[in-house]
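Researcher: We plan to redesign the surface later, but first we want a full-length starting point. C-alpha cells attached.
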C-alpha cells in the first residue's frame, strides 16, 4: 500500500499529494511523501525507506490555537 487512502485525523478521503522529499539517512534513501487533507487541512507525512515501509505521522504545525480575538476588536465611539 503506497498511498494512504484516508486522512488519519478525520478519516476523509480527500488527500492532496504534495511534492515528495528525498533524503539520504544512513546510506538509505528516504522518500517522504506529504499529504494534505482537503477536508480538515491537516498535513501529514508518509516516509518510505529503502526496503522497508514505515508509516509516520508528523503534524505540521497548526496544532495550537492563536487567540488574537481580543486584540482584533476595535470599538470606536
Ligand atoms: Zn482530514
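Model: Full-length starting sequence:
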Amino acid at each position: 500500500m503506497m498511498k494512504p487512502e484516508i486522512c488519519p485525523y478525520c478519516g476523509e478521503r480527500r488527500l492532496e499529494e504534495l511534492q515528495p522529499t528525498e533524503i539520504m539517512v544512513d546510506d538509505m534513501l528516504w522518500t517522504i511523501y506529504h499529504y494534505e487533507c482537503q477536508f480538515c487541512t491537516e498535513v501529514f507525512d508518509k516516509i518510505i525507506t529503502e526496503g522497508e515501509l514505515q508509516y509516520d505521522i508528523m503534524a505540521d504545525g497548526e496544532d495550537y490555537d492563536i487567540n488574537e480575538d481580543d486584540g482584533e476588536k476595535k470599538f470606536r465611539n
